[in-house]
Amino acid sequence: MIVSFKLETDPAILVHKARYSLDRYQHHLVIGNLLSTRKWEVVFVSPGRPDHWVRVPSAAREAASHRRDAGAAAAGRQGPTQAQAQAQGDEHVDEKPMDPAWLPDGEPEVEIESLIIPAVEALHREHIKASAASK
To answer: What is the extent of the structural domain holding 106?
Structure first.
């Protein structure tokens, strides 16, 4: 299974460029991410499958958000409320990138790589099974 990576700055073209890479280089999977949200989410783009967004779980985002809100309150700033952040997160079910404005400052408590590796492993197992079945 051949995997490549695509880092973009423009959310409007990330998936398009990932699909272009699939077609051009005939890879099995392109893992795309945006510079602004790279530590919080990636998108898996592969032939014959819908795009799949892998994101740091809500609990980890909320914990980081609480830290940011406490820091913002101390600095006299106000960020989005937890309800606003949750509602905004629900909009991103599985089709588009998150808005960087809704991301907490700082690092997520869970590294995105810890979510990418098992997801790639599962796709690799499926790829092996499909290859074995076609022989």
So the answer is: 3-133
